[in-house]
Design a protein that fits this description.
5 strands; alpha+beta; flat; about 40% helix; 5-stranded antiparallel sheet; 3 helices
């Protein structure tokens, strides 16, 4: 399967989520609208872990809940470290590409696959199906390469 082109601007907007600077977005994914607030990898995994731990604790599984919550924090730390490595690699590749440019050439805006973000992470998500159905989710994760279009705000 050929590499899907990823919207570099959306990728930059999602990267700003780590600093908490991003308003809600609406994504078009295969005919379905998904709206929510972009979050960092750490916020996503901590939130999902806390939600799962809360459900387990409510069923008398407090020890399992604590372990699960910590496991998801570790997932978040690993994902944040990976994001930082990808950004460092992207900067290195961009510097090399600039050095190799000939006069009058423009630097490509396409993100190389080896440094591209893979997932969109949203909190307080609303999924609007093609038939008008609507589903609320505390967190949503989808593949960035599957996003057909996007805008700021909610429908």
């Amino acid at each position: 399967m050929p590499h899907a082109t990823i919207d570099w601007l959306l990728e930059e907007v999602l990267d700003m989520a780590a600093a908490g600077l991003v308003p809600a977005v609406t994504l078009l994914v295969g005919g379905t609208l998904v709206a929510g607030t972009p979050v960092s990898e750490m916020a996503y995994f901590e939130g999902v872990g806390a939600s799962l731990a809360e459900a387990l604790a409510a069923h008398g599984q407090a020890e399992t809940a604590d372990g699960l919550s910590e496991m998801y924090r570790e997932y978040g730390r690993a994902a944040e470290d990976d994001r930082k490595r990808r950004r460092d690699r992207a900067h290195t590749l961009a510097e090399r590409a600039r050095d190799d440019l000939h006069e009058g050439e423009a630097l490509s805006q396409e993100t190389p696959p080896e440094v591209a973000r893979v997932y969109v992470l949203l909190k307080d998500a609303t999924i609007h199906g093609p038939g008008g159905e609507r589903f609320e989710a505390p967190f949503w994760r989808g593949r960035l390469a599957e996003v057909d279009g996007w805008s700021f705000g909610r429908p």
